[in-house]
Amino acid sequence: MALRARALYDFRSENPGEISLREHEVLSLCSEQDIEGWLEGINSRGDRGLFPASYVQVIRAPEPGPAGDSGPGAPARYANVPPGGFEPLPAPPPDAFQPLLQPQQAPPPSTFQPPGAGFPYGGGALQPSPQQLYGGYQASQGSDDDWDDEWDDSSTVADEPGALGSGAYPDFDGSSSAGAAGRYRLSTRSDLSLGSRGGSAPPQHHPSGAKSSATVSRNLNRFSTFVKSGGEAFVLGEASGFVKDGDKLCVVLGPYGPEWQENPYPFQCTIDDPTKQTKFKGMKSYISYKLVPTHTQVPVHRRYKHFDWLYARLAEKFPVISVPHLPEKQATGRFEEDFISKRRKGLIWWMNHMASHPVLAQCDVFQHFLTCPSSTDEKAWKQGKRKAEKDEMVGANFFLTLSTPPAAALDLQEVESKIDGFKSFTKKMDDSALQLNHTANEFARKQVTGFKKEYQKVGQSFRGLSQAFELDQQAFSVGLNQAIAFTGDAYDAIGELFAEQPRQDLDPVMDLLALYQGHLANFPDIIHVQKGALTKVKESRRHVEEGKMEIQKADGIQDRCNTISFATLAEIHHFHQIRVRDFKSQMQHFLQQQIIFFQKVTQKLEEALHKYDSV
């Protein structure tokens, strides 16, 4: 028989997938199983969606049967339903719709389901996936590299159970059996009562003498990075999943604070031989790049769309790690030599940063990308691709993989000060990088066009003077005429040197700035996750001071905030390390190229000068 429910209070939907309720309205329920405090149903206007379970009273018509069915033997669950039906309920008190400080209440026994009972995130059949719940990066599918049958999952290769993590990369093992060695369940779930996402539940009355319990509210903006990344769910104690030993990401205390544990197997990867390839009898063309990792010395070939897919997986999996941005796509001119060369240089910088990161370099999906020869073992390639896309250690569960030093090593005020300082640093660096990029681009443009043209004008003028002197027909002036003409040719050559020079010094600087502008664009979201966790800690502390929350619950929130803080500080430390390394190397290269350039200019001028020695 269809289940129905009566609305106890008005509810206004605020997010997609929710429906509004009016007090006393009767709704049809799709299921009596609630989803994290929400029910799905159809209101009197025919709208279908979610609404807070605590805003309705479930009703059900009695089954036909003996008259005694409504007596003492009737199900106890509906003992509170009066024989004559429901009377209009009084309006809720003014604070019923406050999103903060709800009394703790346990779910009804019939709707309780233990975390992980049949579903990876402890929900019922309607539980959303981590990607649906927290969002994620979606790979772009522009005209640069369209998806085709080589990449789509249209084959009949059987899906393997399991998920990729961040294990040691020499062995690509996707085993995910719950009983596998080194695999154990971690959970941050507790009896912490959580506020509902669209509004707060109506107040509940505890027996006299019972200690009240406050809640840490959920963010009203369900599309914020803190929510979509899973940071909020983790801090509030909702994460639960199986973690393999090899998936643990370790943060250690270094001489300058928290940092990622070093990669015990460092490597590099070259990108060479961009070649144009065709398929479908020449109907489709693409550029293939040869990758050779130093730890395998086995070449693999990848297209740009493979890089794009890898970036999407990594950006979704690591919410507190800055995954470097790929070179931009281009709709036209994809097969021109200049564009291919520029993209290859950008991919080399990208690969250098990936291989340099202690976490990203060891990630299974990255190692699969580097080592699996898709052209010769398509089955293994697609199996690894599917496992990466089914990885359960994303969203809130990603934070379960973090192993951090003792929390006593962190002072929240000091952490907040460091984060604020880094936020100011990134803004200033972003502004200066934009200014330098604009200046370098303008200067390069002048060298390619303006300087070349001006030097050639000077050279042409000297040759004009030489031609005029030749009209003298004096034998002793021949040497002078030739020397002046040679000077004109020298200035032409210097103009060509100016036009070619930006490729050697300014272009690499602008490539590096573009890469770091991508990093700087990542950090506002990373900082937002950490700031959101700090806000929850401050809120829980306020509840403790007011005597509305037990100290153990507040400590749990702070411990989980510390985990996010350790990871954020470790990522900031890594960013500064590679920044010093990259800009030192690039500035040395720039100045060396400038010196070589002006040595070439000086050589041309000296050659012209020596022509006058024999005059």
Automatic annotation (TrEMBL):
Residues noted as binding a 1,2-diacyl-sn-glycero-3-phospho-(1D-myo-inositol-4,5-bisphosphate) in the record, renumbered to the chain? 303, 305, 343
Q: Which residues form the PX domain?
A: 267-377
> Would you identify the family this protein belongs to, as annotated?
Belongs to the sorting nexin family.
Domain SH3 residue range list: 1-61
Q: Which gene encodes it?
A: SNX18
A single Gene Ontology CC annotation of this entry is:
cytoplasmic vesicle membrane
Membrane topology recorded in Swiss-Prot or TrEMBL: Peripheral membrane protein
* Comp. bias regions, Polar residues: 128-142
Q: Per the record's keyword annotation, is Lyase included, yes or no?
A: no
PANTHER family referenced in this protein's UniProt entry, alphabetically: SORTING NEXIN, SORTING NEXIN-18
Ordered alphabetically, the record's keywords are:
Cell cycle, Cell division, Cytoplasmic vesicle, Endocytosis, Membrane, Mitosis, Protein transport, SH3 domain, Transport
Q: Name one GO biological process term.
A: cleavage furrow formation
Protein name, entry field:
Sorting nexin
The record's GO molecular-function terms, alphabetically, read: phosphatidylinositol binding
For bias type Acidic residues, the affected ranges are 143-153
Where is it located?
Answer: Cytoplasmic vesicle membrane
- Cited InterPro entries: AH/BAR_dom_sf, PX_dom, PX_dom_sf, SH3-like_dom_sf, SH3_domain, SNX18_PX, SNX18_SH3, Snx9_fam
Do you know which Gene3D superfamilies this protein is assigned to?
Arfaptin homology (AH) domain/BAR domain (1.20.1270.60), Phox-like domain (3.30.1520.10), SH3 Domains (2.30.30.40)
**Stretch list, region Disordered:** 61-176, 190-215
* Compositionally biased intervals (Low complexity): 66-88
SUPFAM superfamilies in alphabetical order:
PX domain, SH3-domain
- Which Pfam family, an example, fits this chain? SH3_9
Is Cell cycle found in the keyword set? yes
